[in-house]
């Protein structure tokens, strides 16, 4: 039994190379020959009051349930100081209300909770993946719309450049042009000014001659 971790006084050793079986009113638990793990009755025909669980609810229960590392207080043998990990039975019972005691955790219930929580996590990931697929599809649509807009802008830019090139070839730059015609005074205005000047000279001459203009 060397290396078994169970030695000393008040120990119980069993040598059964063909296996070990425990039969209770609820089923059978056994270790097959050559195996190191327990197998427990779980066939459908041995069960009643079967109700499906909601994996997402079980996952929420696992998320809210404290899990810690700890040591047993009465462990004074070779297992003294051995660290374990897991929830407290009271918390497990409060979260899932299964088993026949709130001071013990039945391993088959712990396995069931773990499997249901994994299913709940898988469903959550699937939902997120669906949302991501929708978002990816929307991004693809937006990229296609952006590409169409780029093509339209490129076409408009090409037309603008072509129009600018045509104006340059025709010699018209769109600014003011010199018609080559000098600005001239209004002849009518100049004539009026000349007539007024003549009248002024006549009046001045009459006054100098001593005549009165009436």
Automatic annotation (TrEMBL):
Question: From start to end residue, where is composition biased (Low complexity)?
Answer: 35-45
Ranges for domain Peptidase S74: 42-160
Ranges in coiled-coil conformation:
115-159
Query: Does the record's keyword annotation contain Transferase?
Result: no
Please give the start and end residues of each transmembrane region. Answer: none
| Alphabetical keyword list | Coiled coil
Q: Does the keyword Coiled coil apply?
A: yes
- Pfam families per the UniProt record, alphabetical: Peptidase_S74 (PF13884)
Family matches, as InterPro entries: S74_ICA
**Protein name as annotated:** Tail fiber domain-containing protein
Species in which this protein is naturally found? Halovivax cerinus
């Amino acid at each position: 039994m060397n290396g078994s971790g169970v030695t000393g006084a008040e120990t119980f050793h069993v040598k059964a190379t063909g296996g070990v079986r425990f039969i209770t009113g609820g089923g059978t638990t056994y270790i097959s020959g050559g195996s190191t793990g327990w197998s427990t009755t779980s066939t459908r025909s041995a069960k009643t009051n079967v109700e499906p669980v909601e994996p997402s609810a079980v996952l929420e229960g696992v998320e809210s349930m404290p899990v810690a590392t700890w040591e047993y207080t009465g462990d004074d043998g070779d297992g003294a100081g051995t660290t374990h990990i897991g929830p407290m039975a009271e918390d497990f019972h409060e979260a899932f209300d299964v088993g026949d005691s709130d001071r013990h955790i039945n391993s088959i219930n712990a396995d069931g909770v773990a499997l249901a929580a994994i299913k709940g996590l898988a469903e959550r990931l699937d939902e997120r993946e669906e949302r991501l697929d929708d978002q990816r599809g929307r991004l693809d649509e937006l990229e296609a719309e952006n590409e169409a807009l780029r093509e339209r802008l490129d076409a408009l830019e090409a037309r603008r450049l072509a129009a600018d090139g045509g104006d340059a070839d025709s010699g018209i730059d769109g600014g003011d042009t010199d018609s080559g015609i000098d600005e001239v005074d209004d002849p009518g205005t100049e004539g009026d000014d000349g007539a007024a000047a003549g009248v002024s000279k006549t009046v001045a001459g009459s006054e100098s001659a001593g005549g009165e203009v009436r």
